[in-house]
Write a structure and sequence with these properties.
- The chain is mainly α.
- 65% of the residues lie in helices and 5% in strands.
- A two-stranded antiparallel ribbon has the order 1-2.
- A hairpin with a 2-residue loop joins strand 5 (232-233) and strand 6 (236-237).
Amino acid sequence: MDLAFIPSPSRGVVDLGPIPLRGYAFCIIIGVFVAVWLGNKRWVARGGQSGTVADIAVWAVPFGLVGGRLYHVITDYQLYFSDGRDWVDAFKIWEGGLGIWGAIALGAVGAWIGCRRRGIPLPAWADALAPGIALAQAIGRWGNWFNQELYGKPTDLPWALKITSAEDGRVPGTYHPTFLYESLWCIGVALLVIWADRRFKLGHGRAFALYVASYCAGRGWIEYMRVDDAHHVLGLRLNVWTAIVVFVLAVVYLVISAKTRPGREEIVEPAAIASGEVDGDDASAETGGGAKAAEAAREKDEPDAKAKANAEAKTVAKADEAGSAKKS
């Protein structure tokens, strides 16, 4: 007899009149809004303009969704292209199936395009968005709960997830709620990145690299617990190997970047300084560079102001001399 467990929803979709509201899609949308909201706050604190994060997200999010779906379809192609399967289902993203590895990789391409159009450095933008991405993943994982998918090994722990669906080879029972484990891990990653960024003034993409490394560390052991079908290489699931490789790359970047480009960017968005939208003293509290940038802008304007004043003084002097000549 199960004394306690996490119940699964009886349905993964709620009909709002003629509009079906799918739990999986709803979690993804909420996650995106949270990531943009937190990223915007961090970007402004770094000396950028409000709204820049959202403008670049317009490029990054669609690319990320396509990349996430491509990774899932390629690595689980048997779900869509084997006998008895309909390849059209590969386009039904609302039914679940996004690979975070593909989402981050192709999303970075979209972000690079957006940053290039705005004339800002991609690493700085990624640093601002890093903890927001982790929170978006924490929220998005609850979409798997709505779909009753990606759970772990059988267990009778009090926080076990009770699966009731028997579709697609599922066996009703109680299992480890790996979606919950990963959701909680991602919240911890977001808090870690925020703390480390404030403590060590991470810059040049190192906050993002810390997010990647810490997420991979958790994804490795959580992935190992899952029981859904997956390709294996040398006895390990493909996603475990991916987590290991990406973890190593992120750590290498952290070490090399800290040596070659120490400190943090002083100016992340020149347009914010030029427009006067960012107050130097406020930005310096977070980055230490906003005040310097504002001072540099003032010093740049001073010669122009002095030249203008001197020209006006000469004009007045000439007018006085002309008036004196006429009187005499």
